[in-house]
Design a protein that fits this description.
disordered C terminus; mainly alpha; about 80% helix; 8 helices; about 0% strand
Length: about 210
């Protein structure tokens, strides 16, 4: 199977999963048609907005990481295709726990369920990353060992983030929600320099050719 076909299919799944998230932000029902009532109705929707932003960032970060990994693959075979499909299955599931936490964000169980979903996805993504490294799917002329080690550490930290957030969710659900959001922001910021360095490594290798 061609790499371009897998990337196109994956991009479509990521895009759809990110787009349907907004469907969980419901238009408020106004009891009074006044500016004050309107703004108050929007303000009380903040849990829905926060859940939307957090899940959108999570999906976006996985999309960026997916692009980075596939950029350096030397081959694509059936094991990679199946592992990619399982990852996409998990990504496409994210809108469901997002809807749950949007509707029942005041319940600790809902916050725990959301965190468990992110934890399972992060664990599987780490497994896929290590599989790609261990079985030599990377073109080592396009990515440095230092970048691989830094990426491995950064990906593993996600499991730690979610473990802590899930562990405290029964006792402090709002703190857990904040941790989910902060972890997404962390990866959004921390990922950029590394991707930039890997791109420079690849560009330098191509110039030598």
């Amino acid at each position: 199977m061609k790499l371009s076909r897998i990337e196109s299919y994956s991009d479509a799944v990521f895009a759809i999963a990110a787009t349907v998230l907004v469907l969980e932000i419901h238009v408020p029902i106004l009891t009074q048609h006044t500016p004050g009532a309107f703004w108050h109705a929007l303000i009380i929707l903040w849990p829905q907005f926060l859940a939307y932003v957090t899940s959108f960032l999570v999906i976006g970060i996985y999309w960026l990481n997916h692009h980075s990994v596939f950029e350096y693959l030397t081959r694509v075979d059936r094991p990679i295709v199946w592992r990619n499909l399982i990852l996409l299955l998990m990504i496409s599931f994210i809108p469901f726990p997002t809807a749950i936490i949007t509707e029942y964000g005041d319940m600790a169980a809902a916050v725990t369920f959301y965190g468990l979903t992110l934890l399972v996805i992060a664990t599987y993504a780490n497994y896929t990353w290590w599989y790609v490294i261990r079985y030599g799917y990377f073109d080592r002329s396009l990515i440095s060992e230092q970048s691989i080690k830094q990426a491995s550490l950064r990906y593993a930290l996600g499991i730690g983030f979610y473990l802590i957030a899930v562990a405290i969710s029964p006792f402090a659900p709002r703190v857990s929600i904040a941790l989910y959001f902060l972890s997404a922001v962390f990866y959004l910021v921390a990922g950029e320099p590394e991707r930039g360095r890997k791109t420079l490594v690849g560009a330098a290798a191509l110039k030598k050719e």
